[in-house]
Amino acid sequence: MIARRDLAVRVAARTDLSPTCFRIALATPEPLTATPGQFGMVACGDGFDPLLRRAFSIAGVARRAGITSVELMVKEVGRGSALLRRACVGTELRLLGPLGNGFTLSPGDGGPLALVAGGIGLPPLLFAAEVLAGQGVAFDLYLGAATASELLDVERCRAATEAAGGKLVCATDDGSAGEAGVITGALERRLTAGRRYARALACGPDPMLRALARLARAHGLDAELSLEEPMGCGVGVCLGCVVELADGRMVPSCKEGPVFPAARLAARWSQ
Amino acid sequence: MATSVGAVALANPVMAASGTFGYGLDLIDLCPPERLGAVVSKGLSPQPRPGNPTPRIVETAAGMINAIGLQNVGVEAFCRDALPLLRERGAVVAVNVFGARMEEYLEVIARCERETGVAAYELNVSCPNVTAGGMEFGHDPALLETLTRRCREATGRPLWVKLSPNAPDLVATARAAVAGGADALTLINTVRAMAIDAAARRPVLANGCGGLSGPAVKPIALRMVWEVHRALPEVPLVGIGGVETGRDAAEFLLAGASAVQVGTAIFRDPAAPLRIVAELERFCEAQGIADVRELIGGLQWR
Questions:
Q1: DSSP designation for A130
Q2: Alpha-carbon Rg of chain A, whole angstroms?
Q3: Topology at the third CATH level for domain A113-226
Q4: pLDDT tens, A14-51?
Q5: Do B54 and A242 touch (CB under 8 A)?
Q6: CB contact, 8 Å: A232 with chain B?
Q7: How many domains are contained in chain B?
């Protein structure tokens, strides 16, 4: 397990990725490693509003000129993310991490990996894509969004996927880019046409993850889902982010997840 | 920084509150339990409890509302898995005891009586998030006195009762707990509260209501500690409610608490209790206070 630490980090860069999403790089005071799927809890301000930290999946860890920076992709949805969007370069924040588990990245029997990202669910899969490309593990990346302008960082997704000899498949709900419809539909069409994968790794909105769990069950495909339960503490003590497992246990997704094999989750995830 | 709550000696006046620190070992890398005055376990029942459906937590202005529903591993797993390691580390452990019925409180205590390394019991009679037990004991002075007395008969160890801010008459419940044999009182538990999603026209929490904690409740908690201290000046109190800084801790001591518990602040910063100890120490130095106990009940009126 990679040791978690509560670090004073500085905003090193921020770039808009879409009308609602942005990328933020946080320079850490010491080298740090993380595995795709892990997350960090960011204190977005120093007052009581917001009171709690916000959980963000790690999109990558870069080391340039001796400086380590943790990359996050954030969708502005409330006070915490709005504060991050307004934070000036150089602003000091606190980052507790890396937390939680990660995706299984080893190659498997039966084909390449299928990486499936919906909307702001992209960060752990972009991280996974770049790590897999570096290791020479084959994968296809399925990237979905509501509309063309919300397909995040397509160029970087394409570069990582092509480096690994895989395909980037895009889909939008409104058909404004890529295939029309949901991204799990694009995956389903390929599975039905005979495309085989060793494992699917996915992160995105709940309906997408449920659709993927159903698809995985129907096609006998192993799937790992990164869940986005609202988290209070991120370290397993508040029990706010519990997820029900197939064996009936309620486990904190911050500690036993956020990545769960679809088969371990309660039946409602794949119904 | 040493203080005591009745017979329980503490290296410093800062404890981790029940339900915010797991079973004492979850944050050993960020906040070693042996460096705190004490750690209070998650509320333990005789059998494991699954807790409430989600969503269970929601953030509000300077606070949060939770309706966890006392999810816990049960007293047996705690005694088997956590307590031996806490003992080994030298942590001072208070066991938070919960039951849906009076007999269940006694069962939890009976199981812990077989173990060494339990410094005190804290009776949870004030959880707003469960349908049976909990708050109903904390709201009825006669029932609370009986429950406390039966627990008192079951153990020679220090017995704390955690009071509800939702009780119709706080001082009456405090007196009842003391009459039943409580050695100390912890106050306050969370304040019954609600959040509503206007667009959906539904409560945010699956449970409908929950308990408010965090800085938003601190002024209420201070007032309640002060009221109970004034009514029962000889009874040791443990103050809890929105303690975020060493200065907050000092305020609770001045209102009459012998020690404080830190809860929601741990969710913001897992090392908060350690930081609060250091800040309280600096506060005392800056104020020329040689012994932190000088602060207890030291509130002055103009």
A1: H
A2: 18
A3: Rossmann fold (3.40.50)
A4: 999 999 999 999 999 999 999 999 999 999 988 999 99
A5: yes
A6: yes
A7: 1
